[in-house]
Amino acid sequence: MTNSINKEQIEKLLPHREPMLLIDRLINIVPLKSATAIVIVKKGKFFFDGHFPGQPVMPGVLIVEAFGQAAAALTAHGIDPKEYKDKLVYLMSVEKARFRNPVMPDCELHLEIEAVRSHGRVWKYKGIAKVNDKKMADAEWSATIVDRNK
Prior knowledge:
Elements (H helix, E strand, L loop, with lengths): L4 E2 H7 L11 E6 L3 E8 L18 H19 L2 H4 L2 E13 L7 E13 L2 E10 L2 E14 L3
Antiparallel strand pairs: 1-2, 2-3, 3-5, 4-7, 5-6, 6-7
């Protein structure tokens, strides 16, 4: 296992594609335990035109989605590829999501995520979103590994 993966490698693990693939890299990977996802938040992202005109802010729901994508990539990257073949990771619940500071365009959002526990196909995670070491958001969430419809 490598300690980092790029967007092309993430696309091999997740079904998400532009414009909904939000994470650009996964670094500091400790398989099935933790990682940091990098989200390059650019001015031209699809959500900034309407959220909010004249004062663009990354929607909190997309920060939560990025947390989920990062966790799914961490899990998929750590599982035996034969075991993960034809599987997807679905978000089940979001708990304790807090948005502390607005995420503005032209920054690098770091999502520090940790797998708290797993029970069968159900995983529990927690994460902190930061820009320049300033906490922007944090959350806890659960996800499950499901069979992909063919």
